[in-house]
Recover the amino acids of this structure.
């Protein structure tokens, strides 16, 4: 079931909310929590009921090992339990997500015809696997102290964040589920949740899906080895860059908004990453909880920066490589992870050169900020080409065209302005449609508009200006006026809803 589907918006969500608060206000909190767990399992099973058994086994297995890891067993036994627990989780993830890929590569290397039947990837397995590995490690470190089984089930299955994150810690969710205040309707929390959900829905349905039609055909033609023009290749790459941005940003807002309707605070997972001045900052703003997981449970475990610069850069590279592999089974994801690992190594190296060796001032000029943001965005776009492409060949064809390998061409409408000055440099004005079926005439307008939104407009948190204090929500906006605007937006959104528009991160 998708957040942007009619059955979710008009049936599942309102019924789940009503029954939860109806039971909760009668102080039957355990029953209300059980209802939310069952509703979340129904939400998960809507996609494929056959995989309900997998998530149920995962919950039982990890809860059992988590309780064993938290007790007073001898350290060597506890470490053994941890390894068994982590490797079992990774084993399931590896089988469902990577078995087909590895068998295909072995078949190619051995020149054999051996293959596996296509293994259908269980929805959200990457997210709930990482979440439960974090639970096991936290239990081993004695950072997890509450082991109520029903609350644990809700921690794993809570439907607003089950499918595509954020990846939450046990310790940041358990106190909220134990708070009696969440079982009674908080109308301000409910209203703010609806508004944030609407903003996210608008980003997904209107912005992300609106620009997707300009990205998909161009990447498809790159896979088919069509000789794309310079302008078309950049148009497709920028269109996908913005599609992914508003798709994931929209999902993140919707997840936070739905959770707020239940009085639950989820961590911010997306914070205007295209405004970043460096790749380091980018990863502090994009998929924040994944970056946190990779830092806390992989980079630091590998040694972090404690064992010298060479080891530090090696750990950075390996962390991002594994982060790329986590996103998908394919060489394109491996290259994407390696690219970002290399970016981070260069970024950290430049900072060390600038501040520690050259002792340059930490103050930067407006021009330097502009070029830093531009360079960061270009590096991210190059990475997204691999992230989006189905094969390395398709990605390389896109980049070849973006570098002018098929010649530099611009829209024919610009020939009157730049034709005389640029023609001497080999630039031709063949129009937007050369080598592609995508209508980039309209796409240009979308790209410019959404770039302005992504680079200069405030994000959802800045618009709503909400904050939490002891699970009470405060805001400083006019809720009536914003509510009217929200209603108008919902009416427009409902005219554009499509049952086929899946969130991109549902594939990971």
């Amino acid at each position: 079931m998708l957040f942007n589907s009619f059955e979710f918006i008009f049936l599942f969500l309102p019924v789940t909310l009503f029954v939860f608060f109806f039971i909760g206000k009668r102080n039957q909190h355990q029953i209300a929590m059980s209802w939310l767990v069952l509703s979340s399992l129904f939400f998960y099973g809507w996609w494929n009921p056959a995989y309900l058994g997998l998530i149920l086994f995962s919950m039982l297995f990890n809860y059992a090992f988590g309780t064993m890891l938290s007790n007073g067993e001898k350290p060597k036994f506890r470490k053994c339990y941890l390894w068994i627990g982590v490797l079992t989780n990774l084993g399931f993830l590896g089988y469902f997500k990577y078995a087909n890929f590895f068998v295909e590569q072995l078949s190619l290397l051995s020149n054999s015809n051996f293959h596996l039947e296509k293994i259908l990837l269980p929805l959200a397995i990457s997210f709930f696997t990482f979440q439960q590995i974090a639970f096991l490690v936290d239990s081993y470190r004695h950072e997890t102290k509450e082991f109520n089984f029903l609350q644990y089930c809700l921690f794993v299955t809570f439907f607003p964040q089950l499918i595509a994150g954020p990846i939450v810690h046990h310790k940041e969710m358990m106190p909220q589920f134990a708070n009696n205040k969440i079982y009674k309707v908080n109308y301000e929390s409910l209203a703010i949740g609806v508004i944030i959900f609407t903003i996210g829905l608008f980003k997904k349905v209107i912005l992300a899906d609106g620009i997707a039609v300009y990205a998909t055909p161009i990447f498809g033609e790159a896979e088919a080895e069509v000789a794309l023009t310079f302008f078309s290749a950049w148009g497709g790459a920028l269109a996908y860059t913005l599609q992914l941005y508003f798709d994931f940003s929209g999902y993140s807002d919707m997840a936070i908004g739905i959770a707020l309707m239940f009085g639950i605070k989820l961590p911010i997972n997306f914070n205007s990453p295209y405004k970043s001045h460096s790749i380091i900052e980018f990863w502090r703003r994009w998929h924040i909880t994944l970056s946190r997981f990779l830092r806390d449970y992989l980079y630091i475990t590998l040694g972090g920066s404690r064992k010298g610069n060479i080891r530090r850069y090696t750990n950075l590279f390996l962390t991002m490589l594994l982060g790329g592999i986590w996103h998908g089974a394919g060489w394109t994801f491996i290259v994407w992870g390696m690219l970002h690992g290399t970016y981070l190594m260069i970024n950290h190296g430049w900072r060390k050169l600038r501040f520690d060796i050259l002792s340059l001032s930490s103050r930067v000029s407006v021009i330097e900020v502009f070029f830093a943001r531009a360079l960061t965005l270009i590096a991210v776009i190059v990475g997204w080409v691999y992230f989006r492409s189905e094969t390395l060949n398709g990605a390389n064809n896109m980049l070849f065209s973006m570098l002018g390998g098929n010649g530099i061409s611009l829209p024919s409408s610009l020939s009157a302005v730049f034709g005389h000055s640029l023609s001497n440099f080999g630039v031709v004005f063949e129009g937007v449609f050369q080598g592609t079926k995508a209508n980039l005439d309209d796409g240009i307008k979308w790209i410019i508009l959404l770039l302005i939104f992504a680079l200069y407009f405030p994000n959802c948190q800045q618009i709503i200006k909400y904050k939490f204090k002891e699970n009470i929500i405060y805001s400083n906006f006019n809720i009536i006026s914003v509510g009217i605007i929200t209603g108008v937006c919902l009416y427009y959104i409902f005219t554009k809803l499509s049952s086929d528009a899946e969130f991109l991160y549902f594939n990971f």
Summary: The mean pLDDT is 85.
